[in-house]
Specification:
globular, alpha+beta, single chain, 8-stranded mixed beta sheet, 209 residues, two-stranded antiparallel sheet
Length: 209
């Protein structure tokens, strides 16, 4: 039975090439994943931070085997850790958080690597915090992130376009009563998410003045 020719163009997140597949023909083998050079990963990873914090931030990125490794240690006096964009999809996402949150963040990565998904990741972490196995910071801890499309990132120039910003400040255990912040999402002011949990944090919207 003959089928009409159908071309599927799919933007490849890392290589930027396009593949054309014709039904009825053997599909071309997938192009090998390209891991950006460490310098490019670091340049992208620190973009969410205020400029004064970028130079000395610790950066985690990917080696040739797509294993998350430390690309750069933090400089003295810089308390931020940044995650490079994970290669292999069409989403561009980089984030930087206060290093005091590293035990919580690291545990999340470990659980996901073990196959734990969705809300079960937080359930496991929350229990470990309650049991005293996972330490949370006692002072507020900031997180900055940028999310967009891979096509918006130019590794050669270090320029990113079309990405959305997000800012949060973690305050483990914080509630509406202890902070005076509403738990109702607002687009023109701060609000509290996950109140009363180890993951409680203040959300800030990019268009706030």
């Amino acid at each position: 039975m003959m089928f009409p020719l159908r071309a599927t163009l799919r933007a490849l997140a890392v290589s930027g090439l396009a593949a054309s597949v014709a039904v009825g023909q053997a599909p071309a083998s997938a192009a090998p994943m390209v891991i950006p050079p460490a310098a490019e990963q670091m340049a992208a990873a620190v973009l969410p931070l205020p400029p004064t914090l970028r130079v000395g931030a610790r950066v985690l990125g990917y080696d040739a085997g797509k294993k998350l490794v430390e690309l750069r240690a933090a400089a003295a006096g810089n308390g931020m850790t940044c995650l490079a964009d994970e290669p292999g999809d069409e989403r561009f996402h980089v984030a930087c958080y206060a290093t005091s949150m590293e035990p919580f963040m690291l545990r999340g990565r470990e659980l996901r690597a073990q196959g734990v998904k969705g809300d079960a990741v937080d359930s496991a972490r929350f229990k470990e915090v309650k049991d005293g196995k996972l330490k949370m910071p006692t002072l507020p801890a900031a997180l900055y992130s940028l999310t967009g499309k891979v096509a918006g990132w130019n590794g050669a120039t270090g320029q990113l376009t079309g990405a959305s910003r997000l800012y949060v400040v973690y305050m483990p255990g914080a509630t509406e009563q202890t902070t005076g912040l509403s738990v109702v999402p607002q687009k023109d002011g701060p609000w509290l998410m996950f109140p009363g949990t180890p993951k409680a944090h203040i959300m800030f919207t990019p268009d706030m003045r």
